[in-house]
Amino acid sequence: xxxxxxxxxxxxxxxxxxxxxxxxxxxxxxxxxxxxxxxxxxxxxxxxxxxxxxxxxxxxxxxxxxxxxxxxxxxxxxxxxxxxxxxxxxxxxxxxxxxxxxxxxxxxxxxxxxxxxxxxxxxxxxxxxxxxxxxxx
Length: 137
Known about the structure:
- By secondary structure, the chain is an alpha/beta fold.
- It has helices at about 10-20, 25-30, 80-90, 95-100, 110-115, 120-130; strands at about 5, 40-45, 45-55, 60-65, 75-80, 105-110, 135.
- The longest helix has 12 residues, at about 10-20.
- The protein is globular, with a radius of gyration of 13 Å.
């Protein structure tokens, strides 16, 4: 039986990195994948202890860890509730709809990043569904 990983733990981040990097829809969904080199945070509303940092290089994740970068080194900070992340991972609602409904929130960075790269964001969050996740935290 496969163990469920705590959302945004290092084990979860490692498995999610593999899932995202192997999903060609993420890379192909970027407006310009080769120039997508950034650091970002995905956090959980109301849970400062549940956040992860991702470093992208040319449309591929090179590092995904629990929070480690300084705030000023992050290009984007994107937050959602546990329920929102779970719905997005399960494919119950596309990321774009969750964003427009205010359930995914940009705390830092340009909203245009999500609009321009909407197919990549949706495929990215759907990739989370491939990771056995402990959602009841």
